[in-house]
Design brief:
The chain is mainly alpha-helical. The chain is 72% helix and 1% strand. The chain has 27 helices and 2 strands. Strands 1-2 form a two-stranded antiparallel sheet. Strand 1 and strand 2 (367-370) form a beta hairpin. Helix 1 runs parallel beside helix 13, helix 5 packs across helix 11 and helix 17 runs antiparallel to helix 20. The chain starts with a helix and ends with a helix.
Length: 652
Amino acid sequence: MIQRYCFSLLLLLVAVFVYLQIGVDVAPQKQWRLLLGLESTSFSEIEFTYARLPRLVMAILVGLVMGLVGSLIQQITKNPILSPMTLGVSSGAWLALVIVNIWLPNLVADYSAGFAMLGAMFAMGLVILISGVRNLSGLPVVLAGMAVSILFGALTSAVILTHDQYARYLFIWGAGDLAQNGWDWVQWLLPKLIPLLVFVMAPRVLSLMRLGHEGAAARGLNVTAYILIFFVSGLWLESVVITAVGIIGFIGLLTPNIARRLGARTSGDELIYSALLAAILLVTTDGLSIFLSQFVSDLIPTGITTALLGAPALIWFIQRQFKAQDQVFFRLPASAFKLNTKIWSLMFFVLLVSLVISITVYRNELGWQFHWPNEFSWSLRWPRVLTAFVAGVGMAAAGVVLQRLIHNPLASPDLLGMSAGAILALVLTTTFFGTSLNHFGPVVAFVGSLLTLGILLVLGRRHQFAPSTVILTGIALAALIETLVQFALIKGTEDTYAILRWLSGSTYRVEPIEALTLMVSVSIIFSIIVLSSRWITLISAGRGVALARGLNVNRSFVLLLMASALLCALVTALMGPIAFVGLIAPHMASLMGARSAQQQLLLGALLGGVLMLCSDWLGQQLIYPSQMAAGTVVALLGGTYFILLLLRGRMR
């Protein structure tokens, strides 16, 4: 144990030495003198003293905090995939900081950490409410954290989009940036790390908790009080770190797992070793960011390199550590309805009402107005209405295909990372190659979606596409892609704001020819999928059944998945990512009595279209004269529905 600590400290010293040599014009001998207090004279020495050294100290402090908090959370919950990132804590703190920076800027200097703490506590409380205290060691808490993160992320995007003058600064902060312009932030952070003293008693308490709550209580431990103290301290530490440097993911999730893999057995060992490993990892990744920034015109935030290393490592741990008993399956509640003419009539009536409202009801300076649009306003409205409805149909159909083919009711293009793959491909080609989103967009998006889907299928096959493995892998890929997209948006040019509006899932500025092209394309693919519903039914029943009925399973499987990826690509290329439609529309169709694949496809597509239609109209009217993107509104509605669905499942 002592040898392991000594080796870790030696490795940290080596990482620090290498870190101080990257892009620095000060000789090592001079560096030592500056460290001992020698006055800086040249520009390079001043930069070393007031930029590089505080950045190094910040990297070490942040790494230690993230490693300790991550290990503490995983030991308390006995869940190796929990961290502030997967618990939704980071998204809650981030949302609170964005709100206070935009609407309460006078309070930022003194109360930003307190607001971040409130946001983190609210997110944590919501996650525990959804999953239940007894489910912290399984998949439900991760699903709850994912739902809360998407919901809060949609709220954050809506706030930023309505105040785009802050966009560049907020995206740099959101990508996790350790750059310093003096010792101010280090001096601000140090006194706020006093709760680290709580961790002195953590090893003994955590060791007793390994006996179980009843066993620990029998030995005189007040389990509830200590868990509350540890969680509050951990949330505070995470909040002040996010306030100081932004969101840096994966560190707190990975280092406790690495510590256990390298032989940490006791609670104290894991805490200390995780902290040291986190400091080493963050210093290394920040050094890599500085090194890479020398070859590009823009600075690369530390969160980018951390995600580039952390996401593949997380996927590896998911593949290695999950065993058969870890595969928690999620099931929908049984439907009490039977699909009949009344339900179909009701849905078509809802569609008709939604169309009429979308076309005739709107707000302006005079308030709410109701009349049939004139020629000019009609030319602006019908492309948006058509695009929203067709996009909902396409994403819902893609969700039905995915859920039935891989036997996973949580599968959807957004949760599996297919939308994220399309987003990354489009943003990279637009940002770094100067290609417009309108040029080759569907082709580029299709390639990105298909590659992501292929990765998930290869990785998910080992565990028979169980929800836990597939969803966690999708979360890791989506987190990686989101970080890369944030890096692409840091430039802050006009192209960036166009991409930002597109990323919110908006029908704004959709041209008539684009809307008609989307309608024709989605209609053709959707018709092919409906005609192939027998394939979906047979594959859903099992490969053995499908083979016995003479179906070429592999070919049908690949063709249907490609059709799903193409639907996702077409919609994403035109109006951007749309969250939750591909998940909740198939669910709602099932709950309304759709049993067969064909019924679920048709009813799910109708529900998805109505949902997107209503979301687009609400986004245009709710915060007039500003507008909220349809993708943001549907993420808020869908996230709320998904949370209620998880709550209902837990209560049942």
